[in-house]
Amino acid sequence: MRRNDRRDLGLLLLRLGAGGVLAAHGTQKLFGWFGGHGIEGTGQFMESVGYAPGKASATAAGLAETGGGTLLALGLATPAAGAAAAGAMAGAAAVHAPNGFFNQSGGYEYAATLGLTAAGLAVTGPGRLSLDHLLGHAVNRGWMIPAAFAATAAGTAVVVGGRARRLRKVKEGEQEALFEEEYME
Questions:
Q1: I want to staple 152 with a disulfide (CB 3.0 to 4.6 A). Which of 39, 87, 107, 126 is the partner?
Q2: What distance in Å separates the CA atoms of residue 108 and residue 176, rounded to the nearest whole number?
Q3: What is the pTM for the complete model shown?
Q4: What angle do helix axes 109-124 and 144-173 make, rounded to 10 degrees?
Q5: Through-space distance between the first and last CA atoms of the chain, rounded to whole angstroms
Q6: Residue 184 reports pLDDT greater than 60
């Protein structure tokens, strides 16, 4: 097997694996498949962790994961697909960051791994075993990589920043008691 063939096969495996996992997670959010909670349940969760409005946040995350993951797996519009998936995973990582790095403690390890894999595929490209290659790379041009990441970064910054502001406001509203109750009697 030639080196280029190995590279293309490796990219196909990465795309299928990461794209499949992302698409499955997205369909949990959108449709309640694979034990997910659908838009309603995911929307409630999103609200509880500071992403508001919850249903819109669940829909956006579900579409980025399902669409980005499916397109990555197919190797179609790879820059946009990888950037969208990476943006969704940045939002997930923000939720898990207070728990540290490792997934076993509820950390952001898993989201970071999926996000970095998606970003790496967006930059590297899908390889020859892809729809992008079959279609002459019509939606996989060099200029699309920075454009897709710039748009995703701007959107992610707005969404994650808004969440951080909402969480700060909630925390500021929580004031600790100045005196313990037993001393007030």
A1: 87
A2: 29
A3: 0.88
A4: 160
A5: 82
A6: no
